[in-house]
Every structure is written in C-alpha cells, then in structure tokens.
Amino acid sequence: MNSRLQSIIDRRGPIRNIGVVGMGYVGIPAAVLFADAPDFESVRGFQRDSPSSGYKVALLNRGESPLKGEEPGLEELLLKVVGAGKFRCTSDFSEVAECDAVTLAIQTPFKDPKDLIPDFSALIEGLRQVGRHLSDGTLVVLESTVTPGTTAGMAREILEEESGLVAGEEFCLAHAPERVMVGRLLKNIREHDRIVGGIDDVSTARAVELYRPVLTTGKIIPMTATAAEVTKTAENAFRDLQIAAANQLALHCEAMGVNVYDVRAGIDSLKGEGITRAILWPGAGVGGHCLTKDSWHLERGAQVLGHGDLWYPHGSESIFGVARRINEFMPRHMVHLTLEGLKRTGKSPEGAKVALLGWAFIQNSDDTRNTPAEPYLAAMEEAGAEVRVHDPFVNDYTGIEVSHDLEGTLAGADVVTIFTGHHHYLSLDPARVKELSGREHPVVIDGRNVVDPDAFIRAGFVYKGIGRGDKNSHEVAPGRR
Ligand code: SAJ
C-alpha cells in the first residue's frame, strides 16, 4: 500500500461528499443511487452549462429527469434525494473541491466510425475541470468506456497537470466501467457485478469503498485500472465476436443450401456438465453504441500499450477486427440478397421501390444509434432504388423520413426488406402485403427471421433470408391475382 497516499486518505476520513460529472444516462442514475445510500452525506451532479445540455441543471434540481423513455424507479428516487437535500446539480465546477470522490460519466464516441479515432474532447474537458479543483486525497473515477491505457495515461496526465498533485501519491485514480442498459439503469447498477480498477492498491480500495454501498446483488470485482478498461471493451468485443460467428455460419449455410436456424438449434442443444455453446443470432447487422466501437477501443489499446508489435502473426488483423468486418458486411449482404431477388423477377434496382421495415438498431426500441439499416439504404439508393423507411418506434432521424404508416410504406413496393425484428412485423400477412405491392412477384428480404418463408413463397413472393440456404433458391409460385 502507498503509505503517503494512505495517510492522506486516513486524515481525510471516509467518503462523505461525492461529485458526478456528466448528467446523462450513466451519470444521473449513479448520482441518485450514491445520494440514496445512507453512507454518504451529499452528491453534486456536475453538468457543463452548454447550449445542448445546460437546461438539465434546473430540471434535475426540480427533481425531474431529462432522460427519455421508461426508467423504472428513477423519477421517484430523484424526487426523494432532491427533496431530502442529498442531491443537487450545478455547473460550478469549483465545488469539486468539496468532494471526497468524483466520478466522470462522459460519452466517448468515435469522431468518424470510419477512422476509429475516439473523440475524447468532452472527457478531456471534464478531466480539466475536475483537475483544476482537485484537493488532496480526492478519489477520481472514470466510468466512461475508454481505450485501455487511458486512465493511467491521458487521464492521469491531465489531472496532474491541472492540479499540480501527483496521482497515486496525493490523489486516488480508478476506472469503474458502466454496464447500464437503457430501460434498466438503476437495476443494472445495483445488480451487475462492478469492475473496479485503481492505478494502485490504495486507489482500488478507495474506489471499492465508493461503489460497495450502491450494490444490492452485484459483487465488486477489483483489479488494476488497465485491466478494468480491457474488461469493459473486451466484454463487448466478445459479444460482437459471438454475433459475427453466427453471421459467418449463416453465410456458410446460405452457400451450402442449409437453414442456419436448424443448425443453430442443433448446436444450442449440446448442453451438459461444463459444455457451453453460446451461439447467438445471425441477422442484418450489428448497430448500437457499444458493440460498434468497443472492439476498436480494445484493438487500439493493444496497439498503443503493446507498442505495435503484437504476437498474433504480425500485421494480421486480430479476430476482433475480423468479427467487426463480418458484422459490418451483413447490411451489404442484405443488398446482395435484394439485388438477387429483383433479378429473379427480371427487375433492375434502378427505379425499384423498396419498403425498408425497421430503422432502430434493435427490436422494439426507438434507439437508432449506428443502425445497420443506414448503409443498406445508402447502397440501394446508390443502385437507383427508391427507398421508403418504416419504423413504429422511431419518430425522426436526420435526413431520413421515417413513416409510422406500414400499409402506406408497403403500397407499390417491389421489395419489402425487414431490417429490425419489431413485433409489428411478426404478423405481416403475405396476401395483404402482396395486394398492397400490386406486383405479381414482389420480393421479401428477411434480415431477422421474422416471416414464414413458405407462406410468402406460396403467395407468389421471391423470398431471400439471412442464413436461409434452404429457401433462397426456391421455385417462384405461379402468380395469382
Ligand atoms: N444482435 C445480433 N444478434 C444477436 C444479438 C444482437 O445481430 O444475437 C445485434 C442487434 O440486432 C443490435 C446489435 O447486435 O443491432 C447490438 O445488440 P445488443 O443486444 O448487444 O445491444 P447493445 O448494443 O445495447 O449492447 C448492450 C451492451 N451493454 C453495455 O454495454 C452495458 C452489451 O454489453 C450487453 O450484452 C447488451 O446490451 C445486452 O446483453 O443487452
């Protein structure tokens, strides 16, 4: 244990006053749970007074949440802790000086998914603000998903530069990655195990002291800060890898004339002592805020910390990079299936009308971040098709008109492409869809295995489905008016 830092901590006493920087979907539930814990006296939510988010300060101080959608228990808990005077939001960062512990929950997107350079600008600003007002013995914790090496590297440098203090000697520094899912924020923080990693043992112990009171069934898993960063990015890289394995298998099954869902059921049936086959689901692609970037954070960490000479055959892409390429390929494969389907009806994509069902990146949600439907739409428009988008949950998306009128979207369509498994699409009636299309042989492209191929084929459709090697070359039923 570092005795100098430990003695500063001992003089300071237990954590009482906490600061949370970034009043977003990670910071707000974290702040109210800290405030609700009897162990702590006060929590300050720090929110920069920016044009887009400054309004949150007054809103939160009225006990109202700026978060969209249902978050069970959040509104009640926010009202409770504001009413009890245990939580207050402010844009005055000088109050960091009153805090025994400060967490930063600030988004770290990629500037441009193509160049995979993380945009740490907001996080850097937050670190500078905290650094300027840091006092002896304060614990600083990064909750944002960052490239491995960031906590002990960039974050440490900024905090030391701004405060004049030395991390690990005069203040504690740790990483405790968030694992929350929209719609279950409080539940996830209370019940998921919490990875907590300090730059040294004293920092780790101090961070454990901070998080233990908010966990109900979740356990604390202590490790180093860099191991915590690797854990967070790797847990999503592994999920991306599992999905890519299912997608690769689907592509192979198409080539071999086999139904991938039969194969999946077969593989999944292998259970028993110590036997696991965590096979996930093939589909039209992988969207969202986590899986589309965390593998690249992991890869970047290995390059930067490993000084570039990684052991896997030098210069070859790692399995995580290959997995990303497979998942990014799937929307393009949906284009291939669409063009093949049109060709079977003797139609060119030029001028073809495509009804694109599902814009959200995940079923029964309005979340459109990094939706795989976007590259599909761009490619089909590039090929000269006219694409109309339907999504019952999505109200707006920059540059795209999203309709809630399913029949209106299907009217006159040469192609019906299902990109998201919204429950609305499970009951599509082949006869009605064909009638609306007005075509003798409309094309249906199923990216999420939601329609019955035989029912649509019998109705006269040309069917193509991800992984449906058993159906994708079917005989086209004679047209029926
Ligand atoms: N997807 C597939 N096949 C699958 C599962 C997902 O194609 O078998 C696609 C989805 O359609 C979607 C994308 O992958 O486009 C991502 O889906 P997701 O279920 O992974 O949802 P996310 O991106 O919100 O992932 C989050 C992550 N949670 C955090 O980072 C805190 C992830 O770690 C969780 O495992 C995941 O939620 C979850 O399990 O709900």
What's the rounded overall pLDDT mean? Answer: 95
Strand and helix order: HEHEHHEEHEHEHEHEHHHHEHEEHEHEHE
User: Measured on Cα atoms, how large is the radius of gyration?
Assistant: 26 Å
Describe the sheet with the most strands: 8 strands, mixed
Instruction: Tell me the CATH topology of the largest domain.
Output: Rossmann fold
Number of helix segments? 16
What proportion of the residues is helical, as a percent range? 25-40%
The secondary-structure class comes to alpha/beta
Strand sequence of the main sheet, in spatial order? Answer: 3-2-1-4-5-6-7-8
The tally of strands reads: 14
What is the rounded distance between the termini?
Answer: 81 Å
CATH hierarchy class name of the largest domain: Alpha Beta
* CATH homology group of the largest domain: NAD(P)-binding Rossmann-like Domain
Bound molecules: ligand SAJ
The geometry reads as elongated
Architecture (CATH level 2) name of the largest domain: 3-Layer(aba) Sandwich
Model regions low in confidence, pLDDT < 50 over at least 5 residues:
none
Note the beta-strand portion: 5-15%
